[in-house]
Amino acid sequence: MNNLDLHPGIMRAFLWSGVLVVITLLFAQGYLMGFIPPPSPALPAAKLAQIFIDNRVNIQIGTLIQCIFWSFWNTWAIAIAMFIRRMERGAPILTYASIANIGGGYVFFILIPMTWAVIAFRCQALDPNIIQVMNDWVWFDWLFTWPPFALWMVIIGVAVLNDYNIPRVFPRWVGFFNFWSALLIFPAGLIAFFKTGPFAYDGAISFWFAVAVFFGWMVVMTVVTFRAVTAEEQRQARAATIRPAK
Amino acid sequence: MSERLVLTRQTLVWALLLGFTIVSWAIGHTHFAWISSGALVLVLAFVKVTFVVREFMEVRHAPLWLKFLTGTWIVVACALLVILYTNAL
Amino acid sequence: MASDRKTAHLPGEEGIWLFVIGDMVMFTALFAIMLHYRSKNLEVFGAAHRLLDQRLGLVNTALMLSSSWCVATAVRSARTGRFAATRALLIAAALCGILFACIKYIEWAEKIKVGLNPTTNDFFMFYFALTGIHLVHVVIGTVVLIFLSKTRWAQGARGNTMRNLESGATFWHLVDLLWIVLFALLYLVP
Question: Which C residues in the span 25-64 are in contact with B, Cβ-Cβ below 8 Å?
Answer without folding.
Answer: 25, 28, 31-32, 35-36, 38-39, 42, 54, 58, 61-62
